[in-house]
Design a protein that fits this description.
Four copies of one chain form a homotetramer. Chain A has helices spanning 31-45, 50-55, 129-139, and strands at 6-14, 58-69, 78-89, 92-101, 107-119. Chain A has a five-stranded antiparallel β-sheet with strand order 1-3-4-5-2. The first copy, chain A, contains three helices and five strands. By secondary structure, chain A is an alpha+beta fold.
């Protein structure tokens, strides 16, 4: 597959107070949660709800996480998380992310994650076609 | 003052995956964060933004927190946090909360918090009139 | 039963940086996590490991949480969480807590929780005797 | 400089219940917090306490975070976080991490972070010699 920024999805929300640290900025450990929120938004919007995958007995386990921090976010700021699929593999999906401050459009954070499909015993499995198929169709991947 | 559920504000959002625990439900330590999100929504909606209070050199420090857990919330569920002011004191505010699942209207959690006004040295102070005044006017409190 | 501060257990650790907020103090939503850490310490120390209860198919679900915040904790400070059983009920346990700063002995937080025993379907159940019995024996409760 | 695993420090603690998610494992966003705990342990143990750097008016801001997840950790497991300095730069420090389960020695997670020194205005600055000097001496770096 080769599509660029496949199924790009945006979700916008306010920074929570509890997400700040004593430097007065959003603590870095919060961004993986923002990314996950982005994946949830993507799967809801494109009718591949992650909760459905879990009902089928599978999960997407994170195998790799990379984040670059360019500028801090602050309490009460509106931020947008952009999430897209970079690559669909037989046993996993790579996602890309950007976090942008709404007020001035500043790019705060970029990131990538690699998710692999595992069953309830934690074994790596092929992504179930019933879940990934509609997504491929939508994305124009045969 | 005597108003009932003063400045009642609702904010609705999805439960995040990271907020669940191995019991498959939202971990109880997340509800204080939901309550805080409710207070932020209330202060934004009623033009008493908490960030403005912080700019004035004050904070609302939590002095008491009480929560009753009636039913669990789950990943991806839409929930509504209802937040209101129960009482305005010279040096603090008492808030009340309900968390409700949108799908079936089930009441999940109720709570109360007591916030006291402190300055940057952590000393208890009267709430600045410039911040609390407009709110009292709006609420019909002289 | 009537024992005072039954199975009182102490656990001491450093405040984590991520636990602070922009007020420069430990965010209040962290204390329920400290309390839980206290319960884990109690159950490990008194051979009633919570993980064993979970293996039996039960959980202790929080039904009520009350916290009073007296003074703030800060990053890198050593704090001690004191945890004890206030009351053993047929279907639950009430715990009490104190959080104390080691350096000066200042009492930072007090709290209580009510835990009820639930099975994997979330139904309220009697505490399994195999788990609670040894604890009662140890505590001198018939 | 070229030292291997400079100032390698270990800290061992139990996985907290709140750190698990509905997959029954430690949520991936917790590992950056474990890494930070590792850095705190390193700075305490080697007399370069991070709190002292903050008192000097500086912070170490995270500019990059990379994590590989090899196997999951579970509630109540004892884990050891190994933390070391990979490189000291004029304006920052690169750290490396391993998280290992104590019971069987399994390697769970590896990671790297890049920290840059910033002042209270968020400007990038040289690491203050009063703070980094003793560390270089200890590490045998001129």
């Amino acid at each position: 597959m080769a599509a660029d920024r496949l199924l790009l999805t945006e979700i916008t929300f306010h920074v929570r107070f509890a997400e700040t640290d004593q430097m007065g900025i959003v603590h870095h450990s919060v961004y993986p949660v923002y990314f996950e929120e982005g994946r949830s938004a993507l799967s809801r919007q494109h009718e591949m709800p992650y909760s459905k995958l879990e009902q089928m007995g599978y999960s997407l386990a994170l195998s790799e996480l990379n984040i670059r921090f360019l500028a801090p976010a602050h309490y009460d700021e509106l931020i947008t998380v952009q999430t897209w699929i970079e690559r669909i593999l037989s046993r996993g999906i790579n996602f890309g992310y950007k976090v942008v401050r709404v007020a001035d459009g500043e790019l705060l954070v970029t990131g990538q994650t690699q998710q692999i499909c595992v069953d309830r015993q934690g074994q790596v499995r092929r992504l179930p076609e019933a879940w990934i198929g509609p997504l491929k169709t939508k994305a124009g991947i045969e």
